[in-house]
Specification:
Family: Belongs to the cytochrome c oxidase subunit 2 family.
Radius of gyration: 42 Å
Main location: membrane
Helix content: 25-40%
Shape: elongated
Subcellular location: Membrane
CATH architecture of one domain: Sandwich
Number of helices: 4
EC number: 7.1.1.9
CATH topology of one domain: Immunoglobulin-like
Structural class: alpha+beta
Enzyme class: translocase
CATH class of one domain: Mainly Beta
CATH superfamily of one domain: Cupredoxins -  blue copper proteins
Number of strands: 14
Distance between the termini: 152 Å
Largest sheet: 5 strands, mixed
Length: about 325
């Protein structure tokens, strides 16, 4: 076997091995968003492969066919050929544009695109707030106007096979919410909401991270997205709601106890009746009588009348 044939065989073997390797950039199809993007990539690939083979084949043939011509003749004008490749290029670009528009206008890919609309049955609404350096998730149920039924930090839980509407914002800085496996990515700006719509199709745990450099702790803005069955998701939301309710009740009871303690300390009913009489007769003479009744409270906070009467008669006569 000649050296040239060995080289061609090695090149062919390397090409086969390259085709057998799974691409690193490929993401598992875990949501309708990823499925839309993946289908677009595959459709464009099906068109690009024959074009690439055709163009490269022509180049290889030309190099091989005219390799020994020291003084090649200039290419003559061929209008038919020019019109052919111009029309072919226009058709290819038109196909790429139409296929891309159908995907980009899909609400699962671009929720805020003009004309993007989808009929959703009982979608889940979740608000995501980014901050330095972490994530907070608010599960609002059937509408963003409702009070959050459950809250969490660091781990976002989603129900499988159910539409999810997400709005992303930031508390302090520029961030970017990104979950590659679900095909989700949106910038997080303070005072502004960016929307996402998806439908998870596979249960599992997927990586979440910030895709916008936001400071020294940027690399720490990691999280997880857990896609779970609907019944487990409902159970988790109910547990979070119960814990929030119990926490609120404990806070209310603590406030009531503090208020009662304050009433016992500062609001003790005290009643004092004092009768004082003073008569002055002789020069520099004074007679005084005092009667005092005092109501003393018991420990329960109720005032009981305990008459304590003191009759004091003091007469002082002073004659100069």
């Amino acid at each position: 076997m000649t050296r040239r044939r060995v080289g061609l065989a090695a090149l062919f073997g390397a090409a086969l091995l390259a085709l057998a390797v799974e691409p690193v950039a490929a993401q598992p199809s875990a949501s309708t968003t990823v499925e839309q993007i993946w289908d677009l990539n595959m459709n464009l690939l099906y068109v690009a492969i024959p074009i690439t083979v055709l163009v490269e084949g022509i180049l290889i043939y030309t190099v091989w066919r005219f390799r020994k011509q020291d003084e090649p003749l200039p290419t003559m004008e061929n209008r038919r050929l020019e019109i052919t490749w111009t029309v072919a290029t226009a058709i290819i670009l038109l196909f790429v544009g139409v296929a891309s528009y159908q995907v980009l206008a899909n609400p699962y890919v671009t929720a805020e695109a003009e004309g993007a609309n989808i009929q959703q049955e009982n979608p889940e609404h979740i608000e995501i707030q980014a901050y330095r350096y972490g994530w907070s998730f608010y599960h609002n149920g059937s509408s963003f106007n409702e009070t959050a039924q459950a809250t969490s930090s660091g781990t976002l839980r989603l129900p499988v096979d159910r539409n999810v509407n997400i709005r992303v914002t930031s508390r302090d800085w520029l961030h970017a919410f990104h979950v590659p496996s679900l095909g989700l990515k949106a910038d997080a700006f303070p005072g502004q909401y960016n929307r996402l719509t998806t439908k998870p199709t596979e249960t599992g745990t997927y990586q979440l991270y910030c895709a916008e450099y936001c400071g020294s702790g940027h690399s720490q803005m990691l999280g997880e997205v857990v896609v779970m069955p609907q019944d487990e998701y409902d159970q988790w939301v109910q547990q979070q709601a119960n814990q929030s309710s119990q926490s609120g009740n404990q806070t209310s009871q603590s406030g009531n106890q503090t208020s009662q303690s304050g009433n016992q300390t500062t609001g003790t009913p005290q009643g004092t009746q004092t009768a004082q009489g003073t008569q002055t007769g002789t020069p520099q003479g004074t007679q005084s009588g005092e009667a005092t009744q005092t109501a003393q409270p018991t420990q329960s906070g109720e005032a009981t009348q305990t008459p304590q009467t003191t009759d004091t008669a003091q007469a002082t006569q002073t004659a100069n």
